[in-house]
Amino acid sequence: MPVEALISRSLAEMPARIAAWRREREQARERARAEASRRQRLLAEAGLGGLPRAGTPGKGSARAQELLEELERRQRREEKRRRRQEREEAARSALAAAEAAAKAKTPPGTPPEGAGTPPEGAGTPPEGAGTPPEGAGTGTAPESKGTPPESAGTPPKRTGGTS
Description:
Layout: H1 3-46, H2 62-104
């Protein structure tokens, strides 16, 4: 590909790249703001007041840091518990739906609803037709006496040695 085509393609993609970069930067700033406000709220819950200025790292006491970490751990645990309950509930409802679908489906071998009963004598074979002759229709060859030949579907056995 010629260099001019590569340059023109890169220049054509530039506005989209710049817009994506700006979106990512704004999202990062928003996450930082949300984290700062969350920490402020946790500190307020702990009764330790807020940070001296919003957005600056706290230089509070070790006790305040411990309480903040404990509150964060508790919050993470609660969030994990909530997500686990949601997953379990979704699994239970999916299982219940599958069971309901299985109950609604007719089992194999049963006639569909509304088919009624077969007419008299329609399902019984005539006298003597119940058993096929020996080896016919069973899908297997009749048993033979003796040992099968080597080429009867089993590969020859290998004897020691390396391959």
